[in-house]
């Protein structure tokens, strides 16, 4: 039975992820697709339970009246049918409704619904543009994803459960009290009015402070994660105290929102207790006065007073549910700001997979500035690196080296080839196909990249190498590691006792040295075997002995591929087929190493000013 209800709602829908709407209710409805029917079923059960409870209360008053004046000998004959009906409601109908309600809520919705939201939002975020992730803490994004999923579930389910139950129950109680005597309904109506005013004053304040609290919680988590992610930098600079102050500042911001929330909770309890005491007193006093005056019978009093006590007890639960509802609404509003953002780079309608039969790359009058449609500028010139009407053609199988000082536009050129950003003007073509008109997945599948800042997944070494080609065999993985001079792998052991290829590398590969991470990255690209290869300071983390050992494997890796290599250590790219010298986003010189030295221009000056193979500061 449990399994059947648990399998009603698919937690991992296969529909293509779409950008969530930015409006609150449209955002909630977007993520409620597929779950609406089950929530309506839960709401129907909740409404029927409320009706059944009010009916039983009403019959209790009638039963008291009949008992006070009934003939005992003929009581069962006169009242037996109704007693059996009420008994069936109490013993059969209510338990069945409660069972169905519980199964729909706990088995179908509580687990599957937020998981469904996480899955859909995560798939959308994975396809977000690079600029999105460059502008946010990873921990902050993850926190917003998790807490927003739970908040959407709570808002949707509280509306379908609590609001329906409370609305039906209160209306039923009002009708029940009015059916005995109109005056007896007045305390309930007055209590309902004052209770509504209290909700109207209190709940929006809770919603606002909850939104601020959700943001403060995300900031606090993001700062903590940032400290842990960069723990080596913290320790190298002996900045434990500085990090404590940095995190404490965000913790204080979060604590202030908690204090504000708890003040509202105390005001709520004080006012609500006073209101409930007034309701019970008014109903009891009015009921007794009406009974003494002969205007109502004892059954009405027997119903009204317990009903007032029941509403009083329920009111605290209702208030907390409403407070929780608007607290979650605040969390959802905060999450919308991070999850409902358009992708900066998208596949055009009808985009086709890229085909690379040769590997010709053409930059055709490319102009680009960071800030023109992008939210951040990566490391290649934070001031706003510019490519200004740049034209460059790389022949199939040609190996070129990009040369220039930091900020010249080298990495920007590579980022545009990978379509991490869209151009202002111009085109980039691969074998005559405009990369803006092909799918991003196929474009990046055709390009192998080894960067200076090698980042590994917190998984096994096997998984990291096989990331280049997940269907690779054991022999192919080991061969790639061997070609990358990664013989150290067999000596590795992690904290769980896993050895060799099974050892886990830690977050971002922190358990490995920079050179070891670089060799794993090279093995990964070797296994990928893409027709276009980008080497962005690929050997910068290797010592001279290892670099010399691996250079032959890199030469083999480059065979038959179109290669773009970036290096500040000019000796590593001097043997390329052609060197392209960039300055302020333009190509200022081209030629072989010997040709450029003979020209006596910028490249020759850079070469002359090198010390140990590195470019000196200008």
Give a structural overview:
The protein is built from 19 helices and 10 strands. It is of the alpha/beta class. It folds into 3 domains: 330 residues, ABC transporter transmembrane region fold (Up-down Bundle), CATH 1.20.1560.10; 181 residues, P-loop containing nucleotide triphosphate hydrolases (Rossmann fold); 69 residues, Rossmann fold, CATH 3.40.50.300. A 6-stranded mixed β-sheet has the order 6-7-8-3-9-10, sandwiched between helices. The radius of gyration is 35 Å and the shape is elongated.
Question: What secondary-structure arrangement, pairings included, does this model have?
Answer:
Elements: H1 2-6, H2 24-32, H3 36-69, H4 75-109, H5 112-126, H6 130-134, H7 138-180, H8 185-229, H9 231-236, H10 240-292, H11 298-339, E1 361-369, E2 386-394, E3 399-403, H12 410-417, E4 425-430, E5 433-434, H13 440-445, E6 447-450, H14 461-466, H15 474-483, H16 514-528, E7 532-536, H17 544-558, E8 562-566, E9 578-583, E10 586-591, H18 593-599, H19 602-608
Parallel strand pairs: 3-8, 3-9, 6-7, 7-8
Antiparallel strand pairs: 1-2, 1-4, 4-5, 9-10
Spell out the key features of this protein.
19 helices; Rossmann fold; 618 residues; 3 domains; 9% strand; 59% helix; alpha/beta; 6-stranded mixed beta sheet; ABC transporter transmembrane region fold
Could you say what the CATH topology of the largest domain is called?
Answer: ABC transporter transmembrane region fold
User: Which strand order do you get reading across the main beta sheet?
Assistant: 6-7-8-3-9-10
User: How many β-strand stretches?
Assistant: 10
Q: What's the architecture of the largest domain, going by CATH?
A: Up-down Bundle
What proportion of the residues is helical, as a percent range?
Answer: 55-70%
In angstroms, what is the radius of gyration?
Answer: 35 Å
End-to-end Cα distance: 74 Å
Q: Residue ranges: pLDDT <50 for 5 or more in a row? A: 374-384
Strand fraction equals: 5-15%
For the record, the count of structural domains works out to: 3
CATH class label of the largest domain:
Mainly Alpha
**Morphology call:** elongated
- Report on the biggest sheet: 6 strands, mixed
Task: Name the CATH homologous superfamily of the largest domain.
Answer: ABC transporter type 1, transmembrane domain
What value does the average pLDDT take? 82
Q: Please work out how many helical segments DSSP would assign.
A: 19
Secondary-structure-derived class: alpha/beta
SSE string, helices as H and strands as E: HHHHHHHHHHHEEEHEEHEHHHEHEEEHH
